[in-house]
Amino acid sequence: MHNVTLIPGDGIGPEVTGATRDVVLASGAAVRFEEVLAGQRAEREAGAPLPAAVFDSIARTRLALKGPTQTPFGGDYRIHIERKDAEGRLETRSYPSIAIALRKELGLYVNVRPVRNYPGVPSRYDRVDLLIFRENSEDLYVGMERMIDEGTAEAIKIISLRATERVARFAFDYMRRLGRHKLTIGHKANVMKMTDGLFLKTAQDLAKEYPEIEVNQRVVDALCMELVMKPEEFDALLLPNLYGDIVSDLAAGLVGGLGLAPGANIGADCAMFEAVHGTAPDIAGKDRANPMATILSAVMLLRYVGEAAAGDRIEKALAEVLREKRFVTPDLGGDAGTRRMTEAIVEKLQ
Predict the structure, then answer these.
(1) What is the torsional sign of CA 95, 98, 100, 106?
(2) Marked catalytic residue, from 221, 230, 286, 316
(3) 214 forms bridges with which residues in the sheet?
(4) pLDDT at site 150
(5) Out of 21, 44, 113, 271, which residue is the most buried by the measure of CB atoms under 10 Å away?
(6) Which of 188, 196, 331, 348 is catalytic?
(7) Is residue 95 among the annotated active site residues?
């Protein structure tokens, strides 16, 4: 039995994670969920947006399925966490969002985001099948910022050989297991010569250990243009943290939107799975949220823990519901609610 920490999150999070729990349980997977709160409700009820109970649960399970959590735009909002350091001393650390706090505290150094077409889902393209590997622990995205004076702010961009080599090796090994053969490194080394230059060179040097994988590179702005023009020519992408966040959302738009985009955050001994999309507060509680991205994130979780057969059954059932288009949410071209779409997937599993 695989114990999984379930974090419902904010906005549509409780709806899509609830739907996903029902689908996973209906698949017959050997999974048991342990629910803990993080986000706005946790802040109201426990006094902190990321309580110690979350880390206690994940310390036991080493697995998490997370719904989206709300983060304010701008200002000086930070998540403050009291944790013990390597010597057991209590210290306070702060982060710009719950997601970043979890990734950093749990050592989840790589974000994997598959992007592909599904039958029945409206899209401008029909042959997209991408794997995006995003470095998760450094770069501008971790929010190391400060105000210099009232009119100037600065951010620190850190790229290290160790972190780049770690994520690149993960990407090459992952591709080797799946039989994928072409990796494109995205960067801005033409301008960020030291930081992005180090990322590019480190990944290229490591590629020599994987001769069966073709490796090329693109400046990230040119990569975005080519993805829009001919996405079917790309197999897998390797990107630093900030570019990876932006490009993976662009890629989701190629196949129908963020409602289709799952994700996995993986570390040495722990993994957290979550959809790419946000909290969508405008439709929260209205039974209109598409649960597909969170369900596909759970499929990734099941394959990660060796429950591939259950994951395959879920993906097949979901694909059938999408193809039939009778019970899909409005963003997928239907008029069903979250609950009815979930029921339709469960019915296919029985």
Answers:
(1) positive
(2) 221
(3) 182
(4) 87
(5) 113
(6) 188
(7) no
179 half-sphere exposure, CB direction, 13 A CA radius: 0
Q: Is 245 a catalytic residue?
A: yes
**What's the pLDDT score for residue 48?**
87
* CA 178 and chain centroid, separation: 19
Establish whether 282 is a catalytic residue.
Answer: no
Report the CATH number that the domain containing residue 176 is assigned in CATH. 3.40.718.10
CA distance 285 to 41: 14
- Report the alpha-carbon distance of residue 331 to residue 7 in Å, rounded: 24
Range of the domain at 98: 1-111+261-350
Q: What sign does the dihedral 302-304-307-312 (CA atoms) show?
A: positive
CA distances from 92 to 31, 86, 236, 310 (A): 34, 13, 38, 40
Low-confidence ranges of the chain (pLDDT < 50): none
Q: Which pLDDT belongs to residue 93?
A: 86
**Edge-to-edge strands, sheet with 214-219:** 31-35, 2-7, 63-66, 271-274, 264-266, 110-116, 129-135, 236-239, 182-187, 214-219
Count of residues making up the chain: 350
CB atoms within 10 A of CB 229: 8
Known catalytic residue: 335?
no
Of 202, 222, 255, the one marking the end of a domain is 255
Catalytic residue chosen out of the listed positions 139, 196, 245, 331: 245
